[in-house]
Amino acid sequence: MCSQINFCSCLSAGTGRSRGSSTMKFWVMPLAGAVLASTIVTLPALAEEPATQPAAATQETAPTVSVVSATRKELSQKVIVTGTLVAREQVLVTPGVEGLKIESLHFDAGDRVEEGAVLARLAVDTIDVLLAQNTSQLASTDAQIAQARAQITSAEALVTQTSLAFQRGQALVGTNAIAKDAFDQRQLAADQAKAQLQVAREAFSAAEAGRKLVEAQRAELELRRSKTEIRAPRAGLILSRNAVVGQIASASGNPLFVIAEKGDIELDADVTETLLPELEVGQKVTVQPSGSATTVAGVVRLVQPEINAATRLGKARIALPEAKDLRVGAFARGTVEVARSEGLVVPVSAIADNPDGQTVQVVKDGVVDTRKVKTGLSDAGLVEVTEGIAEGEFVVSKAGTFLRGGDKVKPQVVTDAGTKTGAGVKG
Fold it and tell me: E strands, 34-111, where?
């Protein structure tokens, strides 16, 4: 240890004071003792601090993971389908007679009509002229028939007369009472009379055939006239009207009216081929038409057996009740409930799909345990677990993370609303 004077000399050099000051000598000694004492007290504390450091570091290495509790809940398996609203049976109304102008229209799109209701009328003046001509033709054929009948009567009388004369001549043949030329003339006259009778009969048949032709023409004209009243072939709702007053009616263009028979509208839904086997006739469907705030309760009416090879989509027809928001051609979305079950559920994100099956990571006493499970229905982000875990056990909410079986973690429970509670869960 240096002498008292030397220590003070060093201190004095640092302060710029005189080394010979006796006052500084007695004041420095207590200060030096205090410094040494504090050094002795502090060293043990510094020596003990590294001993507690590894335990704290070990505790910080356990990661915090979000877990959820396996709870019992009722799930319903749903299939989503989309498509277009269509008429169940669509009736096309076309004119039964062409080339006539549309004279009047009595219904418009959106109207409901009964079967046989007159939707429109065509102009009939042209047909009326043809009917008048036909009436004259009928009168002419009747006169021809009467004339042919009279000719038959006259020819029959002539045949009788010539036949009797010929018979008398035959009786005189071989005697000198009749010459050979006279007998030949009687025979010729009889043959001519028979020929005239045949001509008269044929004329009568032709006249009758002509009358039947005129009658057929009249029936056609009357039929065409009756079809100038365009009637509804079925009762239902008029979906569209393409007819315009003054338009020339034609069956080759667009139909004059389109009617939904009985007003029945249904959803023509597209279904992926993997989900089509889930659909069955009679299943309930909740349909949401585009642009409507309300839903419509429908029923699966038909599941078509054919899959479109290009789109890989199948078709299903969903019958709908009458509703004001249903408009043919509108887009709609349907939700079909295909199954319902009650069991243990966990989030879909908690299930990991592996080559050897599905697994979840159960956290118990802060340790991860990877288990194989079997799943059932899924709905709204939840999946039913039928085998592998018990009710109340906690599973990691998101599978496929960095965790492995045997890892130590700090579980933090996540509620259904997404909030976290209690970081010290042991289950």
Answer: 64-69, 71-87, 90-93, 102-105
For residue 259, the surrounding DSSP H or E stretch is strand 257-261
Lowest mean per-residue pLDDT among 37-46, 69-78, 351-360: 37-46
Residue with tokens 């006169």: 143
Provide CB contacts within 8 A for 207, sequence distance 6+. 141, 144, 145, 147, 148
Query: How many Å from the N-terminal Cα to the C-terminal Cα in the chain?
Result: 66
Q: Which amino acid is at 277?
A: P
Q: How distant is the alpha carbon of residue 109 from its chain centre?
A: 23
Task: Answer for the pair 381, 345: CB distance below 8 angstroms, yes or no.
Answer: no
**From the DSSP assignment, how many helices (H) and strands (E) are in the chain?**
4, 21
Q: Whole-angstrom Cα distance, residue 108 to residue 238? A: 7
> pTM for this structure?
0.57
Residues 296-338: tens digit of each pLDDT: 999 999 999 999 999 999 999 999 998 888 889 999 999 988 8
Q: Please count the CA atoms within 13 angstroms of the CA of 14 that sit on its side-chain side.
A: 7
- The pair of structure tokens assigned to 329 is 């051609």
Contact 70, 328 (CB under 8 A): no
Q: How far apart are the C-alpha atoms of 11 and 18, rounded to whole Å?
A: 10
